[in-house]
Amino acid sequence: MGGALFPGATTPFPGTPAALPEGFVYLPDAIPDADAHLAGLVDEVPWEDHVFRIFGRTMPMPRRIAWYGEVDYGYSGVIHPARPFSPRIATIAAEVERLTTFRFNTVLVNLYRGGADSMGWHADDDYPPAETAAIASVSFGAARRFDLRAREGDRRASLVLGHGSVLVMGEGTQPAWRHQLPKTRADVGARVNLTFRSIAARNVR
Ligand SMILES: O=C(O)CCC(=O)C(=O)O
Q: Which member of 30, 76, 157, 192 lies 3.0 to 4.6 Å from 50 by CB, making a disulfide possible if both were Cys?
């Protein structure tokens, strides 16, 4: 790791309270036609509801999800089968690939219906990477806080992921950091997030 992730990847986010740790790059307003993508994704994606187990209890997953790409993915106790990118997701992927120079072959799409929807602490390291271990996280809709916590030591950082933004989590970030999208009491609208990944083979679940 070290240095720029890809050409031009030095954009600081105005208003970011803490400097982003090495390996993370935030690109605000990076994806064109963000309003149309938000509305289109909410309407077009075949959203799925899932459950997760915590302390022996089964709880509804506090978001809706869908999986696209060249390989199956085991997530939330379910194998999500490979499925081609939709035309809209292929358009967004092409823009992300143009910005980052990486090729991503899969994407987990999350719908947060409001402030009560969230994603808990985790790292995206449960699969063998193909071309890159970097992840490109694209956000549309409500601006939400995103937290980072070092796996060792007490470093933390937060930023707000805005409409049309891309957060690149570079190679080496997932073994070193966990991330979460916390709930908020603020009256926020819907948000769609797409985490593009480069996966060599299905993870074992
Ligand atoms: O919605 C977000 O910004 C976080 C998504 C995420 O962490 C993931 O899909 O692994």
A: 76
